[in-house]
Structures are given as structure tokens and as C-alpha cells.
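2024-03-11 09:14:02 INFO receiving multi-entity request
2024-03-11 09:14:02 INFO entity count = three
2024-03-11 09:14:03 INFO echoing inputs for audit
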Amino acid sequence: MNKLIGGLKQAMDACKLRDGMTLSFHHHLRNGDQVLNQVLAQAAALGVKGLTIQASSLFDVHAPLIDHIKSGVVTGIETNYMSGGIGRAISEGVLAQPVRFRSHGGRPDAIDTGRVHIDIAFVAAPAADARGNANGVAGPAACGSLGYAMSDARHAERVVIVTDHLEPYPLMPASIGEEDVDYVVQVDSIGDPKGIVSGTTRITRDPVGLTIARYAAQVIEHSGLLKPGFSFQTGAGGAALAVTQYLKPIMKRLGVTGSFGLGGITGYLVDMLEEGYFPSLLDVQCFDLRAVQSIRDNPRHQEVSATRYASPSAKSAAVNSLDVVVLGATEIDTGFNVNVHTDSNGVIMGGSGGHSDTAAGAKLSMIVAPLFRARLPIVVDKVLCVTTPGDTVDVLVTQRGVAVNPARPELRDSLKQGGLPVFDIDELKNMAERVTGKPALVRPQGRVVAEVEYRDQRIIDSIHSITG
Amino acid sequence: MQIQGRAMAGTLESNDVMVTVSPADALEVQVTSIVLGQFGEELRRVALDTAAQLGVQGALIELDDRGAVECTVRARVETALTRAKEAKA
Amino acid sequence: MRRSMMFVPGNNPGMLLNADVYGADSLILDLEDAVAPGEKDAARVLVRNALRAFDYGSAEVIIRINPLGTPYIEDDIRAVVPLKPALIMPTKVAGAEDIHAVSAMILAAERENGLPEGSVGLIPLLETALGIENAYQIATADPRVKAIFLGAEDLSSDLQAIRSTAGDEILYARGARRRGGLLRHPLHRCERRRGLGTGCSFCPRHRIHRQGGHFAPACARGQRGVQPVGQGHRLRARGHGRHRGGRAHGPRRGIAAQQDD
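2024-03-11 09:21:47 INFO inference complete, emitting structure
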């Protein structure tokens, strides 16, 4: 049996690609991905129409998708994150059918349980063998963990490995196993390394961001959770990453060794692993080169599937063992609901990713954000889109003070006793508006262009078009 | 105050507003802003008010705003108008 | 107590907006080196508006003005005095006569604005060898003079010395100011924590000259600078480093030796 197939066209013929099918893609090659575009270009050339794209995330590099929508090749999109380039087109109404947003935990849940059916999974693989064993740690387009590809490979009708780096059988290690793979296609390039991982991610140098990070570390210190066995996840934004730098001396001072770091792994978490702050890292996605090298070389840094990371139907998931998660926000309202789907004008430029999953799972969910960004207060009366419901958000940390969800009075007391500047969230809103002035409300009024499906399968919000 | 010529003040940096003023018969304000929906009307009001306080009755005031708060907008409009007063036509 | 003093470029709205985020004891709103010649007028108006609109909390507000001999100083003083800053920082001060000149201009502005005469204090910037030599005269020239600020970067240039973390090249200057009875210069060279333990000061001012006259603040460095200041205090409490009234070492003896010459 020969799985190695000449090209994408032959793979599509072999898989009997038809109008109306659902094609899936993972986003581990991020803004350097070339596979999704190559696949759609080939499908378009074959005259196929009405496809649904089931992508774990979409980035600006996927802009050709907009033309495929206009020409009818693509009529449906389901994803966990959509960057501003494509997001704006969706907000302007280019797609007739609303986008279905899920989360990094909700998507594998839907795939594993059969709610979402994938006809063909095109799995970009930095390294593969001729039988379809694949990993993300070798090859010129190495990306590290392939966590978001695993449910697709397990459950899709047909699985096509797309690689630019074939190795002799049997490839080791194998993140995707030959037992799930139908075909293997070799292409010239699956992605541009510069767009896949940043050389190094950097913490913020901005004093506002550093002050926020300092307060955030103090919140963790006084939360009661910073004790032996502590587990931690932080986002990839500048202030969130900076929290690690303030957390380390506190952990050292208290003599605390954690149990695991989770993510979304950057070089800063790798440092914490190598310096002994955590004995292990669980990795669903590598953000930079250091993370890729570490997952390849360090047995204490392991890949996890998106199912194991965050699926609500998993028998247990890592997010539910998490003590603290540090997250960002575009907006947060006085009910602690958080929006990371849109900008302040309601234009799509994001998505939950793991935001709502980690907030739901972690014992302490913290939002770090400046009190205002470019004259826009971070706290609003009501967010333009609910990504993460307020009952899963515990603390907002800004450079001028922190607000604690009223449902956590003991936490509020702890933080006050720890000397932190604690305010009601309304007070933080007023503080911001005293500087910025009160913004006029901007809320898109057009038809529904996206629906937000929460982890529990409810549609918790919808996003409206900024045009008709 | 009479505007003699064209003048500018401010920059395109974050939290600033670049203000360009030129002679005109009446007071007119044109606003471009990264927060147009939220503060467009407010920017217009502040620019007009600043001009009125300086006794300027005729000028075209163009704002290219990057999220400047009120005191910054007032400062930049005042500086531009003062410079325009001294500029040659 | 002025443990940390931070320069804030007077023509930069974003920095004026967030100036108190560091928690520095003093904020020095800068109309001088951080502001390009063509923007002095804009900076005056912006600083005026900022002081009226923003609440800098418990930080002491100092305004640095342009030197005598420039076309800016008169407008600076006229604009700044009504704002009632804690102190004004005149620059390139070479001798007592400079203080007298500035003081007279301020007196006129105090009268114009109905402010109590002598209410505006001065913290002159000494940044030349001549200024250092005349430190005592400068310090005692006028009761307005409440403190002296050492501009170590410019002084080093004037002396054609190389700036170091240990600061040996400005030892004499520090002693000179001490003799004038005025102490506390803020920290320079905030990048290296070891230097801070010996009683150095935090001041991103050196950036101004590296960048040729325009301020490019070392934000993260500022943050790192403020924290070790507390450590500096603890070290001094244990008798380390150079400080007034305590067990100072070598450098102090060096200065005494020079006095005996």
C-alpha cells in the first residue's frame, strides 16, 4: 500500500473531494502557514464549491480565503480565532452564513463526539514518513507541538499529511500516528519559518505593562495558591509574559516549586522549567524557537492534545488542574465578562482560543490590561461580545489597581491585606473615564455574521456586521 | 485673533493629535481619529471650544488623532492657532 | 525624600499621561533637552495643561527649564511659575550670578501672578566643571535654592571623562555639593544593579545625549532602577556606601585631601 501521493490534486481525487465537504486544518504554522492556501487553491482549480473550513485558527496569511468566499469555493467557516485581516472582511459581511466560533477546548470536543464531521483533514506536518507518522519537531518548518491536529487526525473521514520533510520509516517521535493517516503528500514548502515561530517572544518594556505584571505577581502571591505544587499558565502578550519575571523571585523567596506550566509555551516558561521552578511543561502549542527546541530535547516538556488540554468532554483535562491563568482582554465589563473576539468597534479580530477554557478551569483567572488603551477605557458597561463569561473571571489587574469579582470576597480581603490597591470594577471604570472622557457607544447594527459557541455548547453571543 | 497662515502642532505618536490650521472665513473642524466612533464628536467640540476661547473666528482646523485626551487636544489646537497667528500668509 | 527622580519629556503626551506609573518620588517635567528647539512653545502649553488635568499623586513636580542665554528661558518662567511646581530646575548653572538672574525673573513672575514672593524654589542643575567649582556659592546664592542636581552625564562630557558605574569621575562633584550643605542627587546608570548598591542614582537622562538631544526613555530600566533604591537604603543603614553622617569610606577621604591642598 502506497500512501505517498504525487500532489494535492491527486490527494483530492483519492479522497473524492466533493462540493459541500468540510475540510480541516490546524494552526501550528500560524502566520507562516502555506498549506491552507495551497489546498484551497487546488480545490478552486478543480471547480469545487461550497466547502466548510474547520480551522483551529486563521491568520492574516490566510487572506486568500476572502477571495474563495467571494467566488463560492468556501461558504462556511468554523474556527477558534480569526485575526484582523480576515475578521474585518467577515465583519463587513463577505460570508453569508455566520462564522461558528468555538474555543480550543470546545473544538476537539465537537470533533471527538461527532457533533462536527470532517470529510478531509489536511494536516501540515513539519516532518513525516511515507506511512504518515508525523511530528512537529523536525524539518525546516518545525513548529513544536501538534496538539490541535490530533482530534482531526483521529476522527476525520480521510486524513492527508502534507509535509516538506520526509524521513525514513518509522519517524520518531510520532505525534500523529500512521494508523490514522490515509495519504502523505510532499510539497516544496509547508510554511515560512519566520511566520511560524518568532525568534524570541519578548516581555514588554513599557512601564505600564511592567507595573501591571508586578501587581499580577503580587495577586498570585496573596491568592493562597502559591504553594508547593503550584500550576500556572500565561498568555503570549507582553504584560502577561512579564508576570513570569516578577513571579520567579516570589517563588524563590517562598521556596515554592510548582507542579507544571501549561500553554501556549514560550521561552519564558521554558526558562522556568530549566531553572527548576516547574518540574514539567504541558504544551499544546509552541510560540517561539526556544519552546520548539525544548519540546524536542527535554523529556520534561511534553506535547498534549487539545482534547487533553481543554476538552469539556475529556474524562479530565489539564485546564481543570490549573491553579492560575493570566489572560488578556480587549474589553471587560462591570460584570467581569471579557471580550477577545472583537476590537472596540465590534470588528472581529480574535477569538477565544484557550481564553474561555482556561478561565473556566483555573482556580484563579486573572485578566491583565492597561486601565485604558489609546483613550479607550478597558472597563465598559457591557462588552460588545462575550467571549468569556464573568462568572469564570476572578480578578482584573491594571496599572492603577485591581478589581475582584464580588463572588470572591475572601480573595478581595486577602489582596487588600496584602497591600494591593483594590477597587470595585466600577471605580476602575470611573478612574479611566476621568482621564479619557466617557466614550460614546459604538455597537455594530447589521446582521449576524458570527456566533460564539461556549464550551457547554450554548451560543452565548453573536457578532453583528458593521455594514448592513 | 486672526489666523495669518498655515501652521501645525502635535505628532502622530500614540496619545497625541496632529493639528493643522489654515485660514478660513468661518470656524470648521475636520476630524480623523483612531477612536472616531467613541470620541469624534468630543474632539470636534473641544477644538471649536479652544478656538473660541482664543478668540479665533475663522480657521480650518484639521485633527489627525491617535487617542489624545482632552487636555492634549486643547494644548495642540492652542499651539497650532498661536503659531498660525504669527505665521506669514 | 527624593530617592528617585524621573525625567518626563515635556512634549510627549503619552509619557505625561503615565508619568506616575513608576512611583518615582519626583517627576521632572522637561522643557529643555528632551524638547526640540522648534517645539519649546508646544511643550510649555502641553505641560501646563497636563499639570492642570492629571493627578500625579504624591510625586513632587519639578520643571526643568532652558538655560540663561537662550531665547526660551523668559517664556519658560512666565509659563511655569503660575503652575506652582514644587521646584524649578534651571540648567547650565555656572555660578551664583546665574541664580540671581533666574531668581529675579521668577520674582517678576510671582508678582505678576499674585504669588508670595520667594515661594518658588530652585534645584539648579550643575553640569559643568565650573558649576561644580562654584557649588557652594550656587547653593548659598539665594534662599530659593533648596537642592542641587548633579548632571553627571554632561559633567563627564565637560571633563572629557568616561562615565562609569562606580562613578569615580564624579566623586569630587558629589563632595562639592555636600560641602554646600545640600545632598541627594538622584540615581544615574540604572542598568547595572551592582552600581546601584554603592549609592548611585537612577536617571535616564544619559539617554538624551546618546540620542543627540531627543529623549528616548529607558522605560524598563526606570522600573528596574526604582526597586534597588530601597536596597540602597538598606545597605546604607548597614553602613555600606558613601553617605552623609555615616561611616563613609575612601572617596570621602579623597575629597578631604583635596580640601587640604
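2024-03-11 09:21:48 INFO post-check: The mean pLDDT of chain B is 95.
2024-03-11 09:21:48 INFO post-check: The domain at 7-86 of chain B is CATH 3.30.230.10 (Ribosomal Protein S5; domain 2).
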